[in-house]
Amino acid sequence: MTIILIAAVGSNGVIGRDNDLPFRIREDLQRFKRLTLGHTLVMGRKTYDSIGRPLPGRRTVVVTRQSDWSTPGVEVAHSLDDALKLADGNDLYVAGGGEIYLQALPHADRLELTEVDQAPEGDVTFPVFDRTAWTETAREAHDGYAFVTLDRTAPR
Ligand SMILES: NC(=O)c1ccc[n+]([C@@H]2O[C@H](COP(=O)([O-])OP(=O)(O)OC[C@H]3O[C@@H](n4cnc5c(N)ncnc54)[C@H](OP(=O)(O)O)[C@@H]3O)[C@@H](O)[C@H]2O)c1
């Protein structure tokens, strides 16, 4: 199983504002869809609320501490460990938000980052991580953003 964190991150680390994305980049949303289709998506309950529906073509797992939370088309996990166990040997994409990225980072094998050349105001950030533990295996530069793949190289 490969655990992949996928996120669009401002140059100041900001990923969210008022439970929404601080930037809208169509190509980033298209890339998110292309990479995650057919795979399991794990996300925090707040991120799920901001999307508001299960994303088609993907198994959606929402992490919440609320014992009575449920919604059609979504699997519920009451801890991150339980969510990660649902991967069944397949690729599992962790789709945020800040709380979930922070807890999932030690388990991650790969980071699929969209590095956005903006420093927006925001209230949620991507966790600070040690770049020396990761190798950049792909970088696709675009006007205003870059798609970057980092694979873990140092042992956990
Ligand atoms: N830029 C990007 O790529 C990107 C991607 C995703 C999200 N975002 C943004 O990130 C923001 C949301 O992030 P956030 O940090 O506020 O919230 P979040 O990580 O999406 O969700 C937090 C919630 O997850 C649940 N949770 C967290 N840890 C848990 C655990 N160990 N066990 C069980 N449940 C757990 C809790 O839900 P309950 O309160 O229900 O118990 C908690 O309130 C939004 O602004 C969103 O737009 C950005």
Model description:
- This protein is of the alpha/beta class and 156 residues long.
- It has a single domain, classed as Dihydrofolate Reductase, subunit A, CATH 3.40.430.
- The protein contains 4 helices and 10 strands.
- It has an 8-stranded mixed β-sheet. A two-stranded antiparallel ribbon has the order 2-8.
- It is globular.
- NADP nicotinamide-adenine-dinucleotide phosphate (NAP) is lined by residues 7-8, 15-17, 19-21, 43-47, 50, 63-66, 69, 78-80, 95-100, 103, 124.
CATH topology: Dihydrofolate Reductase, subunit A
Helix residue percentage: 10-25%
> How many H/I helices?
4
CATH class category name = Alpha Beta
SSE inventory with pairings:
Blueprint: E1 3-10, E2 14-16, H1 26-36, E3 40-44, H2 45-51, E4 59-63, E5 75-77, H3 80-85, E6 92-94, H4 98-104, E7 110-116, E8 124-125, E9 134-142, E10 145-152
Parallel strand pairs: 1-6, 1-7, 3-4, 3-6, 4-5
Antiparallel strand pairs: 2-8, 7-10, 9-10
Bound molecules: NADP nicotinamide-adenine-dinucleotide phosphate.
Quick summary of this structure?
The protein is 20% helix and 34% strand.
Relevant terms:
34% strand, 156 residues, binds NADP nicotinamide-adenine-dinucleotide phosphate, eight-stranded mixed β-sheet, 4 helices, two-stranded antiparallel ribbon, Dihydrofolate Reductase, subunit A, alpha/beta, single chain
